Amino acid sequence: MSQYMEDCHLRYCVDEEATTFSAFLLRESFFFPNRQFWIWSCEDRRRRTWDIIVGQGMSPFFGETRECVWMHGERNSVCYSPRDLLLREYPEHINVSGKAN
Description:
By secondary structure, the chain is α+β, with helices and mostly antiparallel strands. It is built from two helices and four strands, in the order αββββα.
């Protein structure tokens, strides 16, 4: 996950030098019949919080055609709860009732 987050930092913060990240902390897990999600958080050297969604199951990146493990990382400047982050990023995969679509 560290290498992935370093790549995310370079993509989202193009005007900053490379950074390192603190230990990754598991915030919450969500388990559904056709996919699972784990929401992790860490801080960069500037003490900004970054969130990482790790998903397993049908991937949003391959048109639901194959199962795999995938990640999505971004800086959390608004302090979303894990459920809110998941609903905001992948609303087509989870609905407000908590059931997978």
